[in-house]
Specification:
Blueprint lengths: L6 H12 L7 H30 L5 H31 L6 H9 L4 E5 L8 H23 L9 H35 L2 E5 L4 E4 H27 L2 H12 L1 H15 L1 H15 L3 E2 L4 H11 L9 H9 L1 H6 L1
Length: 324
């Protein structure tokens, strides 16, 4: 049973708690966007040179430069798009609840959920690491949508068409993919959504569970696509796909990630409020004793330390948060 703390008061406590985490400084955004722009320009120019030499397309340097400028324009246009996507994520967090439904389906009847947010934040290294993961995820989904039949180009025209198709499909699936499969687990993780599994007496962060699941399936998908590419095409085609993932697409995902970090705390707070309202899940501010008792009841007695408060701190820093 919840105590007398209201929904609004609990959300305010979580907002204050989240504000204690580190944030990117303006210089980090300058470095991030600068690196992203340079990556887009340099890799696009080098990719066009590479394709021009391998396929003997006879492109003039001015044509390659024009295409590079076009891709830089696309890079710049991604920023307003990312702002729109982030606005939707912040205002309507329920639109990215698909993976939570999947998690609840897989875990049905094995436990319960509760909220225990901890101070979060992002640094530039985390932004780059997550952006690389997002680039691989988006490209894998794009290649799957295109199907394996497109990964058998036999002429220069087909190769160019295939490369363009990969980029176009990536852009089409980009907003939905990023919202559901990229930012979704990130928000659940920072929101401190935990699952108590009564079957194996474990406590896990839902965001971590979802990221592990996506990484597993993305790894299988990438392996299958890589095998198909290497078995049915020349080696340089596989290198071209890798360059697209690590170049232009990576630069675009960096933009999305940097914009997300600007509204990360508001988005996490909105997600917490949505989970509390739409899914009626317990949280550590309104029901600290109830959560503590359920956590201790599910812990293997052999792993429980003499002091119950130590157990709570080990699992989710429950005691400290409850006091605050």
């Amino acid at each position: 049973m919840f105590n007398l703390v209201s929904h609004e008061e609990a959300v305010a406590v979580y907002r204050q708690r989240l504000s204690e985490g580190p944030r990117l400084k303006p210089i980090h955004y300058v470095m991030g966007f600068g690196f992203s722009a340079a990556l887009m320009g340099v890799t696009t120019f080098d990719l066009m040179l590479y394709v021009n030499v391998v396929l003997d397309l006879g492109l003039m340097l001015s044509q390659i430069e024009s295409y590079t400028l076009l891709m830089l324009f696309v890079w710049a246009a991604v920023c307003p798009l990312s702002v729109c996507v982030m606005y939707l994520v912040r205002q309507r967090p329920s639109v990215i609840s698909l993976l939570l439904r999947v998690h609840r389906f897989l875990k049905r009847g094995t436990g319960e959920y509760f909220l225990c947010p901890e101070p979060g934040g992002s640094d530039l290294r985390q932004v780059l690491r997550r952006s690389l993961y997002g680039s691989v995820l988006v490209s894998g989904i794009a290649l799957t949508v295109l199907s394996f039949q497109l990964i058998v180009p036999s002429s220069s025209e087909q190769v160019m068409t295939f490369g363009a198709a990969v980029m176009v499909v990536s852009f089409i699936v980009l907003p939905l993919t990023l919202m559901e499969f990229y930012f979704g687990p990130w928000l659940f993780k920072d929101a401190g959504l935990f699952h108590l599994d009564s079957r194996d007496r474990s406590l896990s962060n839902v965001g971590d569970d979802l990221e592990d699941m996506l990484e597993f399936f993305a790894g299988i998908d990438i392996l299958l696509v890589w095998l198909e590419i290497t078995l049915n095409t020349s080696t340089w085609v596989a290198l071209l796909i890798i360059a697209i993932v690590l170049g232009p697409l990576f630069a675009i995902i960096i933009n999305f990630t940097l914009v997300f970090t600007m509204i990360e705390r508001d988005a996490v707070t909105s997600m917490i409020s949505s989970i509390m309202t739409d899914h009626q899940m317990a949280d550590i501010v309104r029901d600290p004793e109830g959560i503590r008792k359920r956590v201790l009841a599910l812990i293997d007695k052999r792993m429980v330390m003499p002091a119950g408060e130590s157990d709570a701190r080990e699992d989710c820093h429950l005691s400290e948060t409850a006091v605050s």
